[in-house]
Amino acid sequence: MVRLPAGSYRAGAEYRFAPLTGDVRADVLDVAEQSRAIDRRHPWLSQVTASTLGPNSMRYLDHLVGALAPAGLDPTATMTGVALLSGWVTNFAAQEAAGVSAGAAGGGAAHIAAMLEHGDYPHLTALMTGASAGGSAGDVADADSRSGADDGSDANDRAFRAGIDALLFGIAPTR
Q1: Among 13, 71, 72, 168, which residue's Cβ finds the most Cβ atoms within 10 Å?
Q2: Where does the pLDDT of residue 136 fall: very low under 50, low under 70, confident under 90, or very high at 90 and above?
Q3: Are 99 and 41 in contact (CB under 8 A)?
């Protein structure tokens, strides 16, 4: 049996699960934002692996399964969704704890735009220049500079929610 650090059990007790509303996005986002906050307060949690679930982990799992229930997914899709969402939150918070803002990941949009000018990256170029939307690679860099907060927190919040939405629409597309 793997012995988890005592703090991991206490960290799991920090969740305050609101009654589920039936709105998959709102309910999942509530849990995801709590997870992100807990992971940011306890950055070492991203290094903990568990082979057994304790009562707090079971409450988290149960609540997230309940949040996904209105999507009508089968058990495999539900548990895959839980794993994807949990992984996204843990990795995102770990990057934040390491001081990496969403706009700076991968060197930032300005770095990516500069790299596009010196290489053969047709798919990235099409994406970043907004070929079908009429944008430009500079538009992405400009968006980084307009992110609002100096520490990137507004951009991080937007990127975090965009990631949750991208996962949810892939896990439980609207019907």
Answers
A1: 168
A2: very low
A3: no
